[in-house]
Design goal:
There is one protein chain. This protein is an alpha/beta fold and 211 residues long. It has one domain (2-201): Spore Coat Polysaccharide Biosynthesis Protein SpsA, Chain A (Alpha-Beta Complex), CATH 3.90.550. It contains six helices and twelve strands. The strands form three sheets. It has a seven-stranded mixed sheet. The termini are far apart.
Length: 211
């Protein structure tokens, strides 16, 4: 496995995010994802005010260098050091984490396969759940997914019905599903991450109610 950890940033990485990356690097030095396989891990970041440009650049460079998997981790995500191991050991082409948006009272980012409602992460959630879309806060994507899709991978679309622009991740999820890849939320991994804003939002915070 040749994993490229890709971090698009505006230059304002949170301290807990940085420490999570440090701990991940140390953990990967001591523990192989697959005990019987060699692994090569690289970390790269791209600073820009355009998240789409950052993701395009990072993914392109990772693939040029022969990465078998790309792991997007956003600068406002903190996580347990074994989170990536659990996601990779699923051996699935497209695994992502579900988390709440960074504003009080907002829902989870996961969206059902029909794109009509939200997916929540609970203590009773199944380990894996197919989704129509989710955020890229922490998402592990196999090389084959990128090779099947055409660039640009992360365009921003105008949505006439809402008179607003999409995020850059939604078009990627839709294109991946159309190409035959079913994105999956790893609820186990989702319970190991924190989405950091003015409040440290955890998956099970009783004070924050999803709409």
């Amino acid at each position: 496995m040749k994993l490229s950890v890709c971090i698009p940033t505006t230059g304002l990485s949170r301290s807990e995010h940085v420490m999570s990356l440090v701990n991940l690097g140390l953990y990967l030095m001591a523990e192989r994802i697959f005990p019987d396989e060699n692994q090569n891990i690289s970390f790269r970041h791209y600073q820009s005010s355009s998240i789409s440009n950052g993701r395009e650049y990072l993914a392109s460079k990772a693939l040029e260098e022969g990465a078998t998997h790309i792991l997007f981790i956003d600068e406002d995500i903190a996580f347990d050091m074994d989170t990536v191991h659990g996601m990779a050991r699923r051996r699935l082409p497209f695994v992502c984490c579900n988390y709440k948006m960074r504003f009080e009272g907002m829902p989870f980012v996961g969206i059902t396969t029909d794109l009509n409602s939200r997916i929540e992460t609970h203590a009773e959630s199944p380990e894996l759940e197919e989704c129509g879309a989710c955020g890229f806060g922490m998402a592990l994507i196999a090389r084959e997914v990128f090779e099947k899709l055409h660039q640009p991978w992360f365009p921003i679309h105008w949505m006439e019905e809402t008179k607003s622009y999409s995020t850059e991740d939604l078009p990627f999820f839709i294109a991946a599903r159309q190409a035959g890849f079913n994105p999956v939320i790893d609820h186990v991994a989702s319970r190991k991450i924190i989405h950091m804003g003015s409040y440290r939002y955890r998956w099970n915070d009783p004070a924050i109610k999803s709409e």
